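Researcher: I'm preparing a figure for a lab meeting and need a structural model of a single chain. I don't have an experimental structure, so a prediction will have to do for now. The sequence is pasted below. Please return the structure as tokens so I can convert it later.
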Amino acid sequence: MKRVTLTDIAHEAGVSPATVSLVLNDRPARITATTRDRVRGVAETLGYRPNTLAQSLRRQHTPAIGLISDRIATTPFAVGIVAAAEAVAREHGRLVFLVDTHDDPDTATDAIAALRQHQVTRFVYACMYHRVVDVPSDLGPHVVLCNARAPDDDVPAIVPDERRGAHDATMQLLEAGHRRVAFVNDALDPPAATLRLAGYRDALAEAGITADPRWVHAADPSFDGGREATHRLLEAAPDVTGIFAFSDRIAVGCLAAAHDRGLAVPRELSLVGFDGTDVAGYAIPRLTTVALPHHEMGRWAATALLDAAEPVERARGETRLLRCDVVAGASIGPPPDDVRSDAL
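Model: Understood. Here is the structure written out token by token.
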């Protein structure tokens, strides 16, 4: 569909393009009220939309926010952050300029400089997974972190409540009757690993269960890593009836290990994952998981950034925790003892 121009409006209204520009930009000029009303009426009828980007460049200000990320745009894992930020930007009449740096500081520096040359002054700095980052100083005072925290928590940030999410995941198993519940963690030890381990322990303590050191094992964050760690776990603690896995990917490895050992899920072993990825939905049986709130994080970050009339003072930064929701699947059942007793 052809974009309506000032020349199109001028032709229909019987005036010059210069007159149309003066009217639509509310510039002072000796133009009668009748002519002004006619020009605006024609513009509305033709469906004219002003080129806000061109206008802002003339005014030395771009109606856009820069979204600098590590690799969000090239993975489906956290793309909800981008979608939500773009939706908020549209609501504010702005654009989103997205740059994936692939964790290259030079790429980040060059991207920020290029965006600043186009008068972009507000930035969301986002990560694919929750981690602590050094915030580039050249981002300026208008910056909000998404799925990331500054070392001193001195920059406004939004992150998932990993600890509460892990508590809720573990409670899914405890509420089903399990009392010997294990945790397969991420061996690479990202910030989420410490928080999810704490949430797992919180749930056990809440249920009055003393954690057995044999129940916690670390896995390479992959399918094969989860499979290998689960074999180690079940050799060390064969009486475990439920497993909470750090991620859906690791949980699918747990499923494979259960299959290797002839254990039916969930009849003989129950599982719950974390992250809420498509992997959980494709698993057989479908995994119960805890979903990371990517969309909600992206929306909060962009809204906080655009609602801030003044530069964000780093000394007043805050880290907001966002709850992660449980997504029910078919991988949790009662512990085997209950199954056997029910069959008697």
